[in-house]
Amino acid sequence: MKKKDKTTFIKSPKQNPWKWAFLVLVVLLLGSGIFLGTRIFSVREPHYQNATETTRQGDPILTINSNKKQVNQLIDFYLQEYLKDSDIKYNFVLENEAMLSGEFKILNFPVTVYLYFDPYVMENGNVQLRGTSLSVGTLDLPLKEVMKMVKRSFKFPEWIEVDPDDKSILIRLDQFQMQNGLFIKANRINLLDDEIQFGLYLPKDKTAESTSSSVSESSSK
Fold first, then answer.
1. Cα 8 to Cα 164: distance, rounded to the nearest angstrom
2. Alpha carbon of residue 10 to chain centroid
3. pLDDT tens digit string along 80-136?
């Protein structure tokens, strides 16, 4: 009789469930730590920057879109305050053209004059008014001579320059500043479509100016 072959069975090592549970726990903790770290230390809106960093000298902090009615109200308010102690009054309004009107005496007779201008925005943000026509009752006077009388008779701010020879008026917005130092520049003036746009600018860095002046004073001593 043949002897039966003996079959050898190799016992597999018992799996330890606590070992696998510990490894899973370690992986979860490491993953949570990495996720929280990236959320805490990353910038939520990386494309946004501080306003003081993005605003450069020469950039407007605010763009003002207006119309003729609003600008006329502002001009009227300013002139009433500016001319309250002046004997000669005048008006300046924006219609299809810019119109300057007022009354002064010619040969001791009161005469009301109307001057019409086309406004042009200059590269530096100032506004030039170029004379186009006038109305002085029944008198036939050249525009240049009337503008000379206007320059002599009307009281204008220092930042308004009347040039009779050029038949123009220059509004120097770069010399007009508010009490807090803010200033404006003209961007666009379209009277026919009633579109007027200005830019509001921050004052120059006074700290830099004071530092440069102190340096120059110390070097001169």
1. 122
2. 86
3. 999 998 888 999 999 999 999 998 877 778 888 999 999 999 999 999 999 999 988
Rounded CA-CA distance 156/115 in Å is 15
Question: In angstroms, what is the C-alpha Rg of the chain?
Answer: 38
- Residue from 124, 128, 130 nearest 184 by CA: 124
Phi/psi at 59 (5° precision): -95, 135
* Full domain range(s) for residue 114: 62-201
Residues 6+ apart with CB under 8 A from 170: 126, 127, 128, 129, 160, 161, 163
When divided into structural domains, the chain yields a total of 1
Query: Is residue 28 a part of any domain in this protein?
Result: no
Whole-number Å distance between alpha carbons of 151 and 204? 32
| 1 within a domain of the structure (yes/no) | no
Are 66 and 188 in contact, with CB atoms under 8 Å apart?
A: no
103 belongs to a structural domain: yes
Q: Give domain status of residue 178, yes or no.
A: yes
Around Cβ 164, how many Cβ atoms within 10 Å?
A: 19
Dump pLDDT digits (tens) for 29-65. 555 555 444 444 444 444 434 433 434 455 778 899 9
Q: Is the pTM of this model over 0.70?
A: no
